[in-house]
Design goal:
The chain has 212 residues and is of the alpha+beta class. It folds into two domains: 66 residues, no CATH class; 126 residues, 2-Layer Sandwich (Beta Polymerase, domain 2), CATH 3.30.460. Helices cover 46% and strands 17% of the residues. The protein has a five-stranded mixed beta sheet. Strand 4 and strand 5 form a beta hairpin. Helix 1 crosses helix 2. The longest helix is centred in the first third of the chain and has 23 residues. It is globular, with a radius of gyration of 21 Å. The relative contact order is 0.12. The model has no long low-confidence stretch (mean pLDDT 90).
Length: 212
Amino acid sequence: MKHLSPQPVIVESHTTQKQDLRNEIATIAARFIAEDGATYAIAKQKAAQQVLGSSKINHDSLPDNSLIEQQVRLYNQLFFADSQPARLLYLRKLALTLLQELEQFNPHLTGAVLNGTAGEHSEIFIQLFVDNNKEVAIYLLNQRIQFEVSETLQGHQSRQQEAQETLSFMRANEVIHLVLFASDDVRRLSTKKMPRANASALQHLIEESLPT
């Protein structure tokens, strides 16, 4: 009687299962961001609820923002390739104008408009590094710009986020957020965790994206 060799049993590791779960949540979160303009935090929460249902959400199973950003980029390429590049260029040009106007406050662009994932619902986030937050408010008032004051959570991961005073207003039917930092924070904040670009860097980025 012929003996059959035992077939190897492939057991999916717990780590692999957890990574697959992160990828699934990130993919769904990317859709909420690209289609509905949801923030990363809200999109991540909604996606986790959709995948896990009533199960308790383990934060270790959630994707980080960098993984979600990758999925947003892919989603844009798949579903908005005909419109997203033009939208991104428009927002970057508007942001450049604002950086030039706000030069005295050491402005830097950050967020989706900088990293290239901005879409139809994206808003412009500009970091200002100033000695006195009131100087920015006075400047806007002198320019007759109506604005609202709120706080924005800054930081790549939720556990590391800090609330920063933010002045928001409309320009050319787009929402602009000026996130205020102390002048010394420009050296303290990590550009690796949260990239930012001044007017010169943004101008270079725009020129690189233009067809030759």
